[in-house]
Amino acid sequence: MTFKAPDSLAEQIADYLAERIIRGELAPAERIQEQKVTQALNVSRGSVREALLILERRHLVAILPRRGAHVTELDERSVRSLCTLMSEFYILLGNAVAQRWRNEDELRPFLDIQQRLQVAHAARDIEAFVAESFEVMRAAYPFADNPFLQETVENLQPAMSRAYYLSLDQRQANMVDYLGLFDHLLEAVVLRDLLRIREVLTAYGQRSCELVLAALARP
C-alpha cells in the first residue's frame, strides 16, 4: 500500500490501523510492531510513530516503556466507563441543539440522518447504520460550539465504534429500537425538553452497553 498527501500521512496510517483494531483484525493486547507497519505500508518509521500517538489519544493503543505499542483491551469496566461517559457527552450535545435551534432549516441535518438510518435499516446494513448514528453527534457540534467537547468526543468515537462492532449482529434487532429512540429524541429537541433528552439518551446508553457486554461474554 502507498499513501499520498504527506501532510496527513500519520492520520491516514492511524485510520488504517484503527479500522483493523475496530474490526478485530488486530487483537486486544496484540503488539503493533513499528518496523512491520513501516514495511507493509511503505512509509517512514517516524510517520508510524506519530500514527501510534494518534491512536493512543483515541484509546485504541497503549504505548508502554520498553514494551512498545499494544492494542488496548476491552473488559466490562472499560466498556461501562466508556458508555457512561459517552452518554453524558451525547446529553450535552442534545441539550445544546434543543436550547439553540432557531428554525426548521437548522434541524434539517438531523432529519436527513433519520432518513439515511431508515434506508440502512431497510437494507439491513448494520455498519452503515452505526456510522450514521455517530453522524448525529457531528451534526450537533455547531450548536454546542465547544471545541474541547468536540475534540474529546472525536477521540473517544473510535473506541466506541470498536465496542459497537463487537455487537453488530445483535444490533440487527436493535435498529428498530434505535429508530424509535431517535424519533423520541427529535421530538424532545423540538420541544426543548431537556429532561426527556436525558431520559432518552440515558436509556440508549444503557442498552448499548448491555449489548456490548453480552458480545464480550460470548465464547
UniProtKB/TrEMBL annotation:
Q: Where are the transmembrane segments?
A: none
Tell whether Transcription is among the UniProt keywords. yes
Q: Which keywords does UniProt give here?
A: DNA-binding, Transcription, Transcription regulation
UniProt entry tagged with the keyword Transcription? yes
Q: Where is the HTH gntR-type domain?
A: 7-74
UniProt signal peptide: none
Organism from which the protein derives: Pseudomonas parafulva
Q: Which Gene3D superfamilies match?
A: GntR ligand-binding domain-like (1.20.120.530), Winged helix-like DNA-binding domain superfamily/Winged helix DNA-binding domain (1.10.10.10)
PROSITE patterns attached to this UniProt entry: HTH_GNTR
Q: Which InterPro entries match?
A: GntR_C (IPR011711), TF_FadR/GntR_C (IPR008920), Tscrpt_reg_HTH_GntR (IPR000524), WH-like_DNA-bd_sf (IPR036388), WH_DNA-bd_sf (IPR036390)
Q: Which Pfam families does the UniProt entry name for this protein?
A: FCD, GntR
- In Swiss-Prot or TrEMBL terms, this protein is called GntR family transcriptional regulator
